[in-house]
Each structure stands twice: as C-alpha cells, then as structure tokens.
Amino acid sequence: MTRLRPRVRVAVLFLGFLHGVTASRCAGRACSPAVGNLASGRTLHTQTSCCSNSSLMADDPFLHPGTWWESGAAAAGEDEIRLDLEDRFCLTHVVMVFRSPRPAAMTLERSWDFGRTWEMLKAFAENCSSAFGLPDDVSQQEALCTSRYSRSIPCTGGEVIFRSISQGRRMDDPYSPEALSILTLTNLRIRLLRPHRCPAAPLSSSRGQRNTPHQAPNPRFSPRASRRSPHNSTHTDSSPYAIFSLLARGTCLCHGHAEQCLPQGGQGRLQSGGVQVHGRCVCTHHTAGVHCETCAPLYNDRPWRAGNGSSGEPNPCQKCECHGHAQSCHFSQRVWSSTGGTSGGVCDRCQHYTAGRRCQRCRPGYRRSPARPLDSPQACTRCWCDPVGSVPVRTDGEAAWCHPRSGQCHCKPGVGGTSCSHCLPGHWGFGLDGCRPCACPLTCDSATGHCLQSETNREFYDIPLGGKIPDLTHFHPHEENTSWSNELSISALYYTGKCSCKERKVKSVSDLCRIKHSYVIKARVLSAQDKGTHAVVQVKVRKVLRSGLKLLSQGTHSLYPLSWTSRGCTCPVLNP
Ligand SMILES: *C1O[C@H](CO)[C@@H](O)[C@H](O)[C@H]1NC(C)=O
Ligand SMILES: *[C@@H]1O[C@H](CO)[C@@H](O)[C@H](O)[C@H]1NC(C)=O
Ligand SMILES: *[C@@H]1O[C@H](CO)[C@@H](O)[C@H](O)[C@H]1NC(C)=O
Ligand SMILES: *[C@@H]1O[C@H](CO)[C@@H](O)[C@H](O)[C@H]1NC(C)=O
Ligand SMILES: *[C@@H]1O[C@H](CO)[C@@H](O)[C@H](O)[C@H]1NC(C)=O
Prior knowledge:
By secondary structure, this protein is mostly beta strands. It has helices at residues 5-22, 128-132, 177-183, 333-338, 509-514; strands at 36-37, 44-46, 69-70, 79-98, 105-111, 119-125, 145-146, 159-163, 184-194, 242-252, 258-262, 280-283, 287-288, 294-295, 328-331, 345-348, 354-355, 361-362, 366-368, 380-382, 415-416, 422-423, 427-431, 434-437, 443-444, 451-452, 520-530, 535-546, 555-559. The site of one 2-acetamido-2-deoxy-beta-D-glucopyranose has 2 residues, from loops.
C-alpha cells in the first residue's frame, strides 16, 4: 500500500492540472473537444466473425495489445466492418493494424445520412487501376485510390492509414463549411474485398513471419504467444482477415463552441476515464443544440456563427436586451437591417405586462411604474381610470386605456387628473357626461356649480393647462373699478346680454406701446377658447415688441390673457 501512495498523488495532481486547463479553454476562444477513438465503446458490425468479439478491435492497443477480431470464412472472401454513430461526428483519420496480411483490396466509406447513402473516402489496392479502375495517389496526388497499404507483407502487424485532410491540402479552419463537408460523418464502413496470402509461408505460421526484412511490423501489436486469446488458435485460411486494432480518430461536432461532449440523451456529467467519444456537445459561447449549431434561447441578437479555427475568434452568440422580461428571443433579418447590422433580436413573449421588441414598453392597459426600474417585474402596473370620468375603451372591456408612460387616462370633457377622477379647474358637476364649465368669473363649486367669491386672491393663471406666460396676468386694469355683483361678473359667453366684448382697433404700434401692457407682440391668433374661468389663446408669435418679466420667444404659444375684467366679461380677443 505504501508503495502505491506517491503514484496516486501524482495522478490526482495531474487530474487537477487537466481540470484547470479545460476550465478556460473555451474562454474567449474557439475550442474543440478532445480527439478520441470513435469506435471505442461502440458496436462494430461485421458480416462474419469466427471466434472473437469485434469490440476487441477498438480496445486500447496499449492496454490490450494482443487482442484482435477475426473474420469468419466468407464465401466470396469479403467482409465488412461498420461503425454506426448515433449522430454526426468529425473523423480526422483512420489507422488499422492487421494481424492477418492487409487486404489486397479494400475501401473506406462514410455516410452522412445514417447509412442511406455512402461515399467512398479512399480505396486501397495493390493495383488501383485493375482493382477499382482508379488512378493511384502514388503517381497522381489526391487520387482516390492508393497502393501504399496493400502489400501482402508484413504478414502481420501491417498498417492501413487514412487521413481525412490529406497532407498536401491546406485547411486553416476546421470549423469552416468546406472542412466540415470533408470531416463529418454518421457512419463509417470498411469493406474488406480481397484477402492476401502471406507470400513466404502458409498463413498458419504467420506468427513466425513477423520480422520480415521488408517492413518491420508495429512491435506493439506483435501477438505474444496468444496469451490473451481465449482460443489458442493461430491464423488460418478460414479467417481471411484479422485486425488487432481499428482507430477511427475523431471528435464530436461542436463548431468551435465546446470542449466536452456527453452521451446522447444522457444526463449528468461525463464519466471520468470514459474512453468513448460522446456526441452531445457541452456548449459554450452562449450556443445550444447537440452540435452547438444554434444560439441559446436568449442569445439571438446576431446570427449564429461557428468559431473561427484559424483566427481563434469564438464568435459567440449575443444576448438580447429584454430587460429581464423574456426567456428567449429570435433573430429578425428585418430588424437587423433596420439597425444597420448591430442588433436583430426580438424578445419572445414579454412577461410582466411588458411589450415591444425589447420588452421596453408597457402593454395596453398598463402603465410604467415610475418608482421601479425598467427591469423590475413590477415595472408596469395596471392602468386605473375612473369609470365615470374616463372615456370607456371599446375593446372587450378589459383594462381601461391609459398612456403607457404617463398613465394618463382618456378623460371626458372638463375632466382632469391622471385617472380622470375630478373636474378641471373652472368646471363642475363630475358625472357620466364629464364636467361643465363654471358660469362664473373665477371658479365655482365643483359639486353644485355655485360661483365662489374669491376674486381678490384668486389668480387665474394658476391653471395647469400650459401656463407658459403667467406674467401676462400681472396686469392691473386702469379702467374705473366699480364693484360688480357676482351675477354681473359672469361670462359673456353665457350671459351675452349682460356684457359684450368690444373690439378696438389699434391704430399704430406706437399707440399700443404707450398703453401699459406687459407684453406687446405681433402674433397670429390660431385659436381662442373660453374655458369658463379663463381664456386660452393660441398664437403664433411673429415679433416681440415688448417683453415682460418672462421672455417670450417667437413660435406658437398658449396665452392666458386677462380675460376677466372687473366687468365680468370674457373677451379673449386680441388686437391684431
Ligand atoms: C379700485 O378698487 C380698489 C379696491 O378694490 C381701490 O383700492 C381703488 O381705489 C379703486 N380704484 C378706483 C379708481 O376707484
Ligand atoms: C463483445 O464485447 C462487448 C464488451 O466487452 C460485450 O458487451 C458484447 O456483448 C460482446 N459481444 C459478443 C457477441 O460477445
Ligand atoms: C495493374 O494492372 C493493370 C491491368 O490489370 C496492368 O496493366 C498494370 O501494369 C498493373 N500495374 C502494376 C503496377 O502492376
Ligand atoms: C491449444 O489448445 C490445445 C487444445 O485445443 C491445447 O492442448 C494446448 O495446450 C493449447 N495451447 C496453448 C498455448 O494454450
Ligand atoms: C477567420 O479568420 C480569418 C483570419 O482572421 C479570416 O480571414 C476568415 O475570413 C475568418 N473566417 C470566417 C468564416 O469568418
């Protein structure tokens, strides 16, 4: 036990080191899962089998160097080894070590579509033109057939090697579409078409032939007195093919976005020490899918891209800004072009009564809660509109409409307040028809409409309808101020017989300036309205001849001229 201790510690340290490295391999970079033997842990289908299990081909040649698979006696001398993968993988190369002499003719094929169609990756024959009618890559580079691995010697331990990306070919980016078209597969098939006989001796004594002078066999695979074989059989004519090891090196297909893969459909963590290359990527860079081939649900602000294997750029997916109100978003080409290619994400199913591409607005019937930040679940609260004072919404009588930002409801005439719950100043009689204007010079009781006698300290400009130029009302009339009864001080609009508005033409500007007005302006009257207690005159100011305390600029303004004189008449008519 004590002798083992140091070794254990080393192993633990090594694992810790590995873990530290892998934790950051995808950080800010394109990354790839470890390469392994795709055949490990999977069933290799063969047509015949004489006396050994086909999985013995794919076991670790270092741990089990003396194990092999042996074909049965096939009528036509043909056999086939098929590896069915449960998904798409990348294959980088295939290395086979034969116990028998290598086949005189064999092919290596792949399928992308789970075995429906097959494509030849490479043909192997001693004479390519006679066996397959193909040129030989010994004489013609990149040819589909090769004669390099089909000689009958060595009688055992001979290798057959295939590289997906041949050495002459430049492939900078393994995640590029052209690289993937070369590397990916769902099935691998090795067709053993014609066996060789060992030329120097009968096959049954092949063990003695292993150190032929022509080509040294791989010493790792020299059978050692069949110490592991359950059958102490030697190689016979009845098994034309025997293979020590089949290495199909590859990785799971993750487009540069993962460094680990898990079993398909399996949950949980990778079993440590597992030799099998699994197919489900553990995606990083905010990607998702078995092959990290899409963006994660909330990361579709840009189109998905594979990592760049040559520059190392990870090309991660970008998060959509949904202010915490959506679980997913989708990419919209239209939005992408309208933003000039900066953002194309549209949030899906905005929650918490929000709406909009980024869940940035409140839904109809809800208003922004000013005290809450936009990403709060309580950012939007239901509108509350007084059913009496607000204009009813026709749509299915749900929430009464209010402005999604201010919460202002649609009020009936004369009604004011955010929720339309009371009469505007100068109005009375809150009810289903709204409020009526007071028939008074100043204001009236909002319930009864009775005029209130508060003209002395009541200032008309204290009115919330804009009130841009309150200075205008600091005007003390020079006319004689006889006191008028309340009855008399009533709008000319309602009691036209009691008073009338006089129109006076101003002869010249200098005349007008001589009169003590706060403002003298040249303006066009756009509208004039008697609001009961006050008048609102919309003017377009063209020229300011004299200005009051508050500066008046050119443009459109609402004025509140002193509409009520001591005579009690509203005459919201300005001189030109
Ligand atoms: C106008 O009335 C005020 C009080 O309301 C009074 O102080 C002032 O003397 C009066 N002016 C004239 C000209 O009668
Ligand atoms: C081959 O070996 C594998 C693993 O050792 C085993 O699961 C499988 O059942 C064997 N197959 C046969 C036909 O013996
Ligand atoms: C291959 O076979 C063809 C015809 O079968 C023959 O003409 C050619 O010489 C052979 N090539 C070699 C290298 O043996
Ligand atoms: C091989 O098998 C035969 C019988 O089938 C047995 O007598 C012999 O000892 C075996 N040889 C070895 C090396 O196991
Ligand atoms: C990957 O990066 C290289 C070098 O920066 C660049 O030339 C190439 O276009 C990139 N590939 C893709 C698919 O963007």
